[in-house]
């Protein structure tokens, strides 16, 4: 595999994680297991977690700061299992200390980051309220939403696109720059290079339906979970809640690059991962469960899954082998705090 063959794009965010409780969720109108964009009512939460100026939170919650953003987490996961200089990631950050932390974390995992930098707004953040095995994510995109298609069109950035053989875009980026996604997607289709996308959150299927539908025709592999799949079906007026049928239906939607069939990969937590093909086949891959006492934090498990999958897929492994690696890396991640990977460099498949 040559240098930087996997190109990823998304919203780089500094994750601010606390082990919370129902009262904290209720205070800001949050659900225990959901991902949303911050509204005005959530800004105090972001501010409190970031500055720790409020005595209540200092006493009751211990924040952990993690370099995050869903697509960057997946990119770090892929690079974690890939040879050096395999993965490059593009997004937008502020000119501040948090961007420095993000770079340091990425470099630690071997990920090359080619950030667009803006001076007028800070690096984005994501409050992660952990309650048991649930996590409520509230993203304040800030600098991340300033990414502009003009950046990817510069010769310095476009060379990373042209050099890549595989592409992964996080669904949250649909809220920022559909134009940038389409530039990459169209290039991938024209050159018959696999383009992969993540549904990422149920609210995207509802409130960014048009943006998603404009990109999906270019998608060769679509990732999501059962909640997101059901949201997609609901918002397209499909009269079914059967996840297999939804995955199959998505796989058969119109596609620009007819040289590749669409594959839809749907995770279901503890239940088997579904892989639907446009030829009508659905394969199930059981999840190897670990003892619940060993689960530390499920935040980022889906990103770890995608990272593990891509790490094998870009090396020419089968879909089954890619899913196995995805399950393996997700298991490793949920035994750590946040969207993290083991400090020691592990190899896959394990010896």
Write the layout of secondary structure elements.
Elements: E1 6-9, E2 13-19, H1 22-27, E3 34-37, H2 43-51, H3 55-60, E4 64-68, H4 70-81, E5 87-90, E6 92-94, H5 97-108, E7 112-113, E8 116-118, E9 124-131, E10 134-140, H6 149-152, H7 155-163, E11 166-169, H8 178-190, E12 195-198, H9 202-207, H10 209-215, E13 221-225, H11 226-235, H12 243-251, E14 263-268, E15 271-277, E16 282-285, H13 301-313, H14 319-333
Summarize the structure.
With 351 residues, the chain is α/β, with parallel strands linked by helices. The chain has helices spanning 22-27, 43-51, 55-60, 70-81, 97-108, 149-152, 155-163, 178-190, 202-207, 209-215, 226-235, 243-251, 301-313, 319-333, and strands at 6-9, 13-19, 34-37, 64-68, 87-90, 92-94, 112-113, 116-118, 124-131, 134-140, 166-169, 195-198, 221-225, 263-268, 271-277, 282-285. It has one domain (6-12, 68-121, 143-333): 3-Layer(aba) Sandwich (UDP-N-acetylmuramoyl-L-alanine:D-glutamate ligase), CATH 3.40.1190.
